[in-house]
Amino acid sequence: MKKNVTIGVLASLLLTVSVSYGQIMEKIDKTKYKYFEYNGYDRKAFTILYVNNQGDKDSEKIGKNFSFSYEDFTGRFDYNVISLKKLDGNFETKNDKLTLALNNQKIPNKVMDYLMDEGGWKIPLETLNKRATANKTDAERQLFEKTFAGKNINDLASDFYEDINPVIQSNYIMLLSAGNVRTYRDYYDEIDKKEKERVANYNKNLKSGEGRIEFKPVQRKYDGYMAALKYYVYNIDLKNDSTLSVFWNMCYSDASFRNNYTYSLKLIAQGTQSIESKQDIDCDPKYKRSMDELYKTIMTSGNVSYILGNTLPELNEFKIMLSIYEDNPISLKIGKQEDLKKDSRYNVYIRDLYKKDQVRWKRQGVIRARKVTNNKEEKIQDKEKGIKIDEKKLAYKYTTEKKTDTTKTWVLQGRYVSEGEVINNGLTKSEIKIKRGLDKDGMMIPSTFYQTEGKKIEGLGTMLAIEQPSLNLFLSPSYGTHGLNIDISYLESGFQYFLNFGFDGYKFKDEPYIYKDSGDSLKTNVSLFNIYFGVSKDFHFMRNFVFAPHLALGAELASFSNKELDEIVKKHVKDKYKEDSYGMSNTTFNVGAQLGYTIFHSTKAFAGIDYFPISYKKNKIFGPNGDFYEIKRSPVRIYFGLRFEI
Amino acid sequence: MKNIAFIILIMAGGLLTSCRTYTTSYQAQSLSNNNQRLGVQGAKGTVLFKIFTYERSVEVAREKALMDAIHVVLTQGIPNSSFPNPLLKDPTNAIKQNRQYFDRLFGDNKYLDKQNIKIHRRQASKGTHSSFVQLADDGSVNPQDVMKINGSTYKVGITVSVNYENLRKELISNGIEVNVSQGFGW
Fold it and tell me: N or C of chain B: less Cβ packing under 10 Å?
C-alpha cells in the first residue's frame, strides 16, 4: 500500500510540475540574453573626412587628387553630408588628440545640424522615416509621418523618443588618410636586394661538393604605386541618458548652446587598408598611363566603399539585426541596399524560456533569400543608370500609398519561423572567407582594426570572400564494394557548379578473374578513380526537401591492385588495346538527380541516382590473347550521401 | 484493484491541482491611453493595454488576444490603468447566468471554461467580441514580446484597444448587470 501511495504521489508531483510550468513563466523577473541584445535595425549614417596628415609628405598630395561624392559610396549606410570634406591634422597622433581636432572644427555639431534640418532644428521627418524604416510596419510609418509633420519635439508624446533616439545615436564620423607611398619598382628592387644577399650568403657558406646557386631576379609584372589607407571611425556618443538629456533639453531648444556644445566621441574602429594604383608593365602602349596619372588614382572612392561595405560590417556595431516583417511569405525589410544577395542565409532567433526563469535568444531556424528587393534609394538607382544626380538631394522619397518592398525568403531549416522573430546576419555561416597571405615585404598591408571593447579582428584587408560554397560528401555503398565521392561545389543563384572526386574500389571474391593463358584464377581488386565537373540546380519543396537534377562531364581511370595480374597484362596486352583495356581511361558524362532532406540548416541527407550512358560500354579488361572480360556494373548507380553546406 | 483506484485518485488530484494554476492564461499590462505612437488619441470610452497571450503561433495569438482582451475587461479590469475594475458587477455569476450570450460573444463555447485552450482561427472570428476590440499598432509584434515557452507554445504580447463604453451598452441592453462606477474618470 505504502509503495502505491509513493508511486501515486510521485506521479501526481510529476503532473503538477509539468503543467504548472505555465505558472512559473509568469514570474520571470530575470532575463539573460545568451547571444546578443536586440535593439532593432536603424540605418547608420556616416560623415567622411579626408585628413591631410602633416606627418606624411604624400598624404596631402593624395588628398588633392582625391575628390569624392557621397553618391559614390556604398548604399549599405546613410550619409550626413557636410560641406567640409578635408581637414588638416596629424593622423599619427593619439586618438584623444584627433577627437579634440574634430571638436575644435565643430564637426559633430555640423553633423547634428545636418541631421536636424540645418538651421531650424526641426524634426527631420524624412531622414528619420528613412533611417528607422526597417523597424516599422507600413501603418506605423504612415502614422509616424502624419504625427511628426510640422511639429516640434515638445508637442509629441514621450513614446516617440523610442523612434527618434536610435537615429540620433547612430551617427558616425570616419577619418581617412593615405600615406606610405612606394613604387612597384622600389618594391621589386627591395625583393631583389634581399634575394641577392641570400644567394651571396648561401654561396659563401658552401661546403665542398655542394653546388652554387644563381641569383634570379623577381619577375616584374606591375608598374605603379602602393600605399596604406588608414582610418578611424567615431560615434557621436549620445547613448547614455545624461548626454541624451542634454541633447533634447539644451541643444534642441537653444541655438547658441548647441553651437558651442562639445559632443563626446567614441572610437569604434581603426585600421589600415592597402591601396594601389598599378598597370601591367607590358600592357598595350596605347592604354599605358604615365606614373603621374597612376599617382592621381592611388586613392579612389572605391577604397572607401570597400571599408564601408566589407570591413566595417564585420563589427557588431554595424551588423544588421531585424525582425521578420511578414510570415507568409517570410519577408524582410532589407534588400540590395543592405548588400543582401540571393541565396544568402540568415539565422532566425526567438526569445526562449529556459531554466525556469531565464530567457535567451535561441535559434529557431534558418532562412534563405529567394527574391531580393531593390530597396536602394532613388539616387543610387539613378547613378547606376547613369543619370546625373544632385548630391545635396539626399531626401528619401517615401510614398505613403506604396507598400514597402520586401525581400522574400523561404525556410531552409526549422519548423516554424514567424513574424516577431529576429534575424542576425552576424551569426550565419553563409560564407567562407579565405584570407590572402600577408607578404613579408609589405606588398599587402594588413588591415587590422580594433573595437574599443578590446576585440581584435585581423587580416581582413586582403580578404577574398567566396559566398555560398558547399562541400558535398557522398558515400556510395551500392556501387563497388567500397568507395567515397567528394563533391566540392560553388552555389550561385540556385545553381551549383561542382567538382567531383571519386574513388570506387571493387573486391572480387566469389567471381575472380580467370586468366586463360595459365588457367589459374587470380583474385584482384579494381580501383576506379573519377573526376567530374558539373552543374546542378536545387529545387526546394515542402520546407525541408530538395530535388537537385544534375549534368556532369568527367573522366575515369581504373587500375588493378593485384601486382601479378598487373605484370601479366602489361606484358601481353596488345598495343592497340592499351587505351581501352588496362588503365581503362574514359571520358564520360552522367546525368542524374538527388533527393535530399534538410537535417540541419547546413546538412542534408541525400539519395541520388546517376546514369552513365557512355563509359560503361568500355568497361573491358583485356586478356593477352585479345579476349576480354567485362566488369559487371550497371550504367545506373544509386547512392546515398550527406551534403554539408559551409 | 483498490490500489489502482487509489493511484488514479491521487493522480487525478494532482492533475486538478495543476490545472488550477493554469487558469490565468494571459497577462494584461497597462499603457498610456493617450499613446500617439500607437495611433491612439485617447478616445473616450476606450482602454489601451498590452495583452500577453499563449498560443501556437503569432498569427493565432493575434486572434486569441482579442478574446483575452475582452475577457480581462469583463472579469478583472486592467491594473494601473483608468479601468482597474471588472466591467461585470459579479463576473462569475453573470457569466454563469448568461452563458449563452457570452458563448456567442466569444464565438467559442469552451473558452469561458478554460482560457488556456488553443483556439481555431475560424472559431475566433465567429464571435461578436471583435466589434468591441481592435488591434493597435496594426497588430505588429515586437520581438521582445515574443517568447517560446515550450515546443509548441508561444507567449506573444499584442497591443489592443477595447471600447468598454460600447461593450457596457451592449451588456446593459442584454440585461446583464455591470459595474456602474467603472470608467467615469473620462
Answer: N
